Amino acid sequence: MVAWRAGERAGACLDRIGTASPGAQRLLVDCESDPAVLAGLLRERTAVEGLPLAENRGFAGGANAGLEHAFAAGASHAVLLNDDVLVEPGCIEALAAGAGAAGAASPRIDGPPGVAYAGAELELRRGFGRHVEGALDYLTGACICFSRAAWETVGSFDESLFLYYEDVDWSLRARARGVPLAVVQEAHASHAGGSSSGGEQGETWAYYSTRNRLWLLEQQRGTPHARREAVRTSVRARLRALRSSRRPVSLAKLAGVRDWSERRMGRGPWPA
Q1: What is the pLDDT of residues 36-93, one digit of tens each?
Q2: DSSP 3-state assignment of 187?
Q3: Buried (b) or exposed (e) across 56-65, using 16+ Cβ within 10 A?
Q4: Comparing C-alpha atoms, which of 239, 235, 270 is closest to residue 252?
Q5: CA–CA separation, 3 vs 10, rounded Å?
């Protein structure tokens, strides 16, 4: 499980795993970790292993660190979780079965609109993904079970993305390499969504989702197509910035367009 400055939300996620799947080994990857806080969380949970990262490597970097640690320790499967995801009994076991020996799988996830997941499709005119039941264009990084074979075939998450779209990019690479992806409808979890980033009303989401969407479009459709979408996104954001209630999010989107165009990837101005 990946957290940024882990707190009680991470503790609740770990506790739920312990209750729902007592046989699962639990690993907490804590980006920009506070040693005292992490020690307190682990003191109450002696069966949990901690992996503190001094820097904030983003969700992509934290996920890579945790998954590489799990597979180096001999795991045949590893389940990646956001720290605000709560799995239901049987979820982890069903995901491992659904991923099989060489694939990857996500569960059905309950949550607010835009967060609830039972499949997803990607449209490559503007680069937006949307959750559509049964669609398999990409799995959700909120909860993915990776087989060792899938991870070794596809490789790690692209850490230049830092946050958002790393799951989409990984899924597209997996599909290109013939790795089977599955949504296991009988595996259930719930997701609060945006607990660290502020969700779709937050500047963190606005910046990274805009920058990385343009990056993905460039990878899939070419630079001219991505540049045209960058212009459209900028015009919309400038108009919305005239409304005071939308100004911070709109300015963050404009920063995302700017940094994509200037090839500034990795960790951006957010989170502060």
Answers
A1: 999 999 999 999 999 999 999 999 999 999 999 999 999 999 999 999 999 999 999 9
A2: strand
A3: bbbbbbbbbb
A4: 270
A5: 7
Do 60 and 166 form a contact (C-beta atoms < 8 A)?
yes
Of 61, 92, 62, residue with least CA distance to 79? 92
Q: Please state, in angstroms and rounded to a whole number, the distance separating the CA atoms of residues 146 and 163.
A: 19
* Coil, helix or strand at residue 205: helix
Of 95, 33, 21, the C-alpha closest to 61 is 33
Write down how long the chain is. 272
In angstroms, the CA 33 to CA 5 distance is 5
DSSP 243: S
208-251 tens-digit pLDDT: 999 999 999 999 999 999 999 999 999 999 999 998 788 999 99
Residue 153 has φ and ψ, to the nearest 5°, of: -75, -45
SS3 content of the chain, % helix, strand, coil (to 5): 45, 20, 35
Supply the DSSP string of 53-115, one letter for each residue. Answer: ESS--HHHHHHHHHHHHHHHTT-SEEEEEBTTEEEPTTHHHHHHHHHTTT-EEEEEEE-STTT
Comparing CA positions, the residue from 138, 144, 71 lying closest to residue 107 is: 144
β-pairing, 85-87 vs 181-191, is: antiparallel
Q: What is the pTM of this model?
A: 0.95
